[in-house]
Each structure stands twice: as structure tokens, then as C-alpha cells.
Amino acid sequence: MAGPIPEIITFLKGAGYLAEKKAQTINNAHQHTVSLIGN
């Protein structure tokens, strides 16, 4: 009885990974903007 549960877990992990990468990208861009304004 595996069912769709492993697929759901894989999907959620993938979505979490993408969200984390997106947050890192936004954070990096924000820090870059702050350093530009700071100078």
C-alpha cells in the first residue's frame, strides 16, 4: 500500500527546496541592494 504518498512527499520536498532557493536568491539580491545603497 504505497499509494500516492511517496509522490506527495517527494513533491513537498521539491517545493520546499525551490522555495528555499527562491528565498536565498531574494535575500542575496536584497543584501546586494543594501550594499549598493550603503556605498
What does this structure look like?
This protein is an all-alpha fold and about 40 residues long. It is about 85% helix and about 0% strand. The chain is built from 1 helix and no strands. The model has no long low-confidence stretch (mean pLDDT about 90).
Spatial gap, N to C terminus: 60 Å
Strand content: under 5%
Overall, the morphology is: rod-shaped
Mean pLDDT comes to 89
pLDDT < 50 runs, ≥5 residues: none
In short:
The chain has one helix at 5-38.
Name the descriptors.
39 residues; 87% helix; mainly alpha
What's the SSE blueprint?
Blueprint: H1 5-38
